Amino acid sequence: MTARKQYPLRIDPSLWSAVEQWAADDLRSINAQMEFIVRDSLRRAGRLPKSKPPQFHDDVSQRTQHE
Q1: Residue 13 needs a FRET pair 20 to 30 A away by CA distance; which of 48, 60, 66, 67 works?
Q2: Measured between alpha carbons, how far is 35 from 47 in angstroms, rounded to an integer?
Q3: How many CB atoms lie within 10 A of CB 19?
Q4: CA distances from 49 to 7, 19, 39, 46, 52 (A)
Q5: Residues 6+ apart with CB under 8 A from 66
Q6: In this predicted model, what pLDDT tens digit does every residue of 19-66 receive, in sequence order?
Q7: Contact indicator for 19, 34 with CB cutoff of 8 Å
Q8: Residue 50, exposed/middle/buried by CB under 10 A (0-12, 13-18, 19+)?
Q9: Taking a C-beta distance cutoff of 8 angstroms, is the pair 32, 24 a contact?
Q10: Residue 17's closest CA among 58, 25, 67, 51?
Q11: E strand intervals along 1-67
Q12: Domain ranges, ordered by start, for the chain
């Protein structure tokens, strides 16, 4: 599992309640919801590095090519 940076967050109680409700509506933990919000905001602002598309490994085709 990827290591996560821990950060103590001070947040207005009304914001916390809104995030808590949103997380419950989306069946996420509050931590996962906060990460979703931050990631989405960074993506919209163009602040996330371009990621490579996922690579899929096809073991069957690799085995048949080498046989």
Answers
A1: 48
A2: 15
A3: 17
A4: 21, 26, 11, 8, 10
A5: none
A6: 999 999 999 999 999 999 999 999 999 999 887 666 676 665 555 555
A7: yes
A8: exposed
A9: no
A10: 25
A11: none
A12: 11-48
Q: Which single residue is written with the structure tokens 């371009």?
A: 50
Choose between 58 and 67: higher pLDDT.
Answer: 58
Q: What is the pLDDT of residue 49?
A: 86
Coil, strand or helix: which one is 10?
coil
For tokens 């995030």, what's the residue? 19
Nearest by Cα to 11 from 28, 26, 31: 31
